[in-house]
Specification:
Structural class: alpha/beta
Order of helices and strands: HEHEHEHEHEHEHEHH
CATH superfamily: NAD(P)-binding Rossmann-like Domain
Largest sheet: 7 strands, parallel
Number of helices: 9
CATH topology: Rossmann fold
Low-confidence stretches: none
Strand order of the largest sheet: 3-2-1-4-5-6-7
Number of domains: 1
Shape: globular
Distance between the termini: 63 Å
Amino acid sequence: MATVVEKLIFFVCIFFPRLFYYYIDAIISAFIPAKPKSIAGKIVLVTGAGHGIGKEIALELARKGAKLVLWDVNKANNEETATEIRSMGESATAFVVDVTKTDDIHKTAEQMRREVGDVDILVNNAGILYGGELLKLKEAHIRRTFEVNTLAHFWTVKEFMPAMLEKNSGHIVTIASMSAKSGTAYLVDYSASKYAAYGFTEALQEEILKLGKRWSKNYNCQSYVCCYWVYPILKPKDVALETVKGIMYDQEFVYIPRSLNISLRVAGLFPRKFQRFLKAFAEQGIKPQYDPHSKSD
């Protein structure tokens, strides 16, 4: 049995040098970023590609020479994105898919593999937001929020990650928001679904590494995109540009704007009451958008 002193010596000799190495590596990476990888010719699936952030990400990836596969429940919008990409001289294939339906996902994935090939980069962008007081939200709306924003990630990853594992190459992108880092009033269901998506991403990253897969120099198999409020502050194209950059540089966390990372870290140093005061003072959040009398589901 090793004595306490022997364990302490082991800790000092093994762990501190490794900790020092990782600090030096992080500093070097911050000032001398790795060379961006090429995504030209890569098959990229973007869910929710018919509008907003998804559309802009698809367009930006096409400009980098990627072959796009577009999923959306809205056929007209999805085809519009595909047409715009083709007008650039790039490749785009559009499918009408409801990401809450596993049979729909599996059937379309099989067709994709036959007609296009295996997915190299998966962008889980499809999302839904009702924006209302929790007690007034319908059960169907809460369930759909989790089905689209969280559970759909399980189904797409289970469908497309096996080929990535086999090739020991690939990239999975999760589009989230600041609400995944700071719960927000009138977004209780949305914030919870994005928190869950973050947990999914973090656990999956560790699991991939446990399986012995190293898809990049810095071991990042995924990118988790955390952006500030889109439209009031950011534009979808701002998010798209940073997301594609994150993919090309194998960034594990992509904060948009980049100062958001620092802001969240600094805020974490303050007491919770003061954090809430800052959010209220800065008028962060949304106003209720949900109509409890709506018959839509």
